[in-house]
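Researcher: Let's walk through a ligand-bound prediction step by step. First, I give you the protein sequence. Second, the SMILES string for guanosine-5'-triphosphate. Third, you return the three-dimensional complex as structure tokens. Ready?
Model: Ready.
Researcher: Here are steps one and two:
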Amino acid sequence: MWIPAGRSWWRGRALAPWASGPARPRLPWSRPAPTHAVATDPRAPSRPYGSAELKETPDMSRFPVEDIRNFSIIAHVDHGKSTLADRLLELTGTIEKTTNNKQVLDKLQVERERGITVKAQTASLFYSFGGKQYLLNLIDTPGHVDFSYEVSRSLSACQGVLLVVDANEGIQAQTVANFFLAFEAQLSVIPVINKIDLKNADPERVEKQIEKVFDIPSEECIKISAKLGTNVESVLHAVIERIPPPKVHRNNPLKALVFDSTFDQYRGVIANVALFDGMVSKGDKIVSAHTLKTYEVNEVGILVPNEQSTHKLYAGQVGYLIAGMKTVTEAQIGDTLYLHKHPVEPLPGFKSAKPMVFAGMYPIDQSEYNNLKSAIEKLTLNDSSVTVHRDSSLALGAGWRLGFLGLLHMEVFNQRLEQEYNASVILTTPTVPYKAVLASAKLIKVVKYLIPLCMSTNRELHKGVKVAEKLYFLKKMCNLLGSIMAIISSSFLLASFDYEDAGYQTAELVKMDILLNGNIVEELTTVVHKDKAYSVGKTICERLKDSLPRQLFEIAIQASIGSKVIARETVKAYRKNVLAKCYGGDITRKMKLLKRQAEGKKKLRKIGNIEVPKDAFIKVLKTQPNK
Ligand SMILES: Nc1nc2c(ncn2[C@@H]2O[C@H](COP(=O)(O)OP(=O)(O)OP(=O)(O)O)[C@@H](O)[C@H]2O)c(=O)[nH]1
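Model: Step three, the predicted complex:
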């Protein structure tokens, strides 16, 4: 793991657009001289007011601003965020303490199956400390770089973070990237060294690393085992002592930030809100700054971690709000909600995500187009880092071109569509966009191809790492299209990677045609890197051979660049006698089989005199080897 030479390497970074208020004179993460009233007697009894006591609607007015702490748990992937969240929920009595509590905030099926967090989740905890009861709003965030947009949005609702670092692995790429996000948002950072129970744990080494890399005094690190629960209570104490309460004004009119949204079939949009000013309750008339539509609030509440309705929510608190928003274009993430009678200046919202890879998405059956459209809209409400543009393909019909933050993100989105919306889709091979320079407007002859060139914007990174990173990128990018995907799987490089559009660069790409008995199959024409053309062409020919039904004549499948054939497969002739099984049999059965064959033919596309079933295209396009 690389460690920067100097301590001041991070200084001078620009603030994120949503970071508001004047810069603090002190380092944002160093332990503040508490300006807020904090209990000083650590032996004071801790009397959790847990969900068991939430049989009655909780009175949120019991929590003045100074008794509220809003914080996120951030870390590199698998360093133990969700396990720490489990212990915090147990310690505060929010959930019963059982041995079954394993990553309880990972609610999605995809999270359970893959064992990773992909969605940030909020939970409100009640915790008594020094004879006072606090409201702690915790947001557990994903660790994988593909979901870092979740982290940046979550931080907008917080004043501090727990930066969890594995006592064995030490600082990793996402530790650095997430630290930056917290730093840019001017949040207090509490370093937590986790997994001290591991045999190879070396918390002292990690402590020094944290001091060196982040300039946080080692005595501020809290060493815990989230798995065993060791020393976890001191994390809660630190949250209260080191994270300031939110700077908000309850006497001002309502100003609520929508930092997450889900779509419920029956209740419409459920917006997760952080109240920056004022208060909101059932029956209030509110306006969306995004659509300027007015709504009546049907329900407000907190997440413990499931929804628990409350009479009101007050500035400084984090919860949910339902206001009869029935379509996904309402209550967009980043929207500001305000009272109908008291318009306010909207909050800055969020930077839009920068997609890294693009793939085509099509319904398996075109009659499912509208259902799939609705499913994509609902899911992108919950995952606003996906970009969606309408697209169409000769072979696959009407669909969309989707942009994702990485390959894992693409897979998870696809899996969520299937699991949460019962959608079956064709997802084409992911790629990056490219341009072709034509010989002239009239002459469609490609002079050269250009691929997008990215420039790392992490100027603070250590020179050695940066140079290596750039070289790796440039080498890869110049060598083959789509190489960014290879880098995406390299967690370290990508995690420290941000990019700006740096224009396009010439690449050695060629147009490759696929032919059936000499006729070009337009649907399968593709652009590949020169060095990869043979292997891609060969694989496409082989897959086409496997999926083309035999016909009455031989079929030559060829891959060619211009007039040069680079790969070939042959489908042998075959006469399919559908009536063979009905030899001497019943005439109605024969008619049925002939009818079924005729129906099947409707799904065929004729190329020359060859009938190609749609399935063949799907198999080839879906599984096309990486260009
Ligand atoms: N030995 C040990 N294992 C731990 C500890 N905390 C977490 N783990 C294990 O580390 C693995 C990852 O834990 P998670 O809590 O899912 O990590 P995470 O940071 O939330 O993971 P992502 O959200 O996917 O980034 C799991 O197998 C946990 O059981 C700990 O204190 N000690």
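Researcher: And what stands out?
Model: Confidence is low (pLDDT under 50) at residues 1-53, 454-498. The chain is about 25% helix and 30% strand.
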